[in-house]
Write the structure tokens for this entry.
Amino acid sequence: MSQNLLGIAYCNQGRIDEAIASSIVAIATLESALKIYPPEVFSTRFRDKWTMLQNRLGNAYCSRSQSQESPEDERKDLDLALAAYEKALQGTPKDESPDDWARTKQNITQNPRT
């Protein structure tokens, strides 16, 4: 999970300075972590970790969208964020993890594309 922690660090750095460059690295790192196992294995055997990575990937795309110069690039990042949040939501049953489910739903509703 060190890939995950590295992704978080880059996300946090993106909030401070060089947001777009840091977000690009965070996105690449989180996507790399999600490729450790095939999606069907990762999302079932390690559902909590897979869901957390998807949620953080959505956060990284949202962060990068705020630094985009063109509306098209901003929209694209927000769409990618929504896709990641939706995947996270699929791995977060409301009845088993109501707090995680609610946080992911909140991320979706705060996205300007919704």
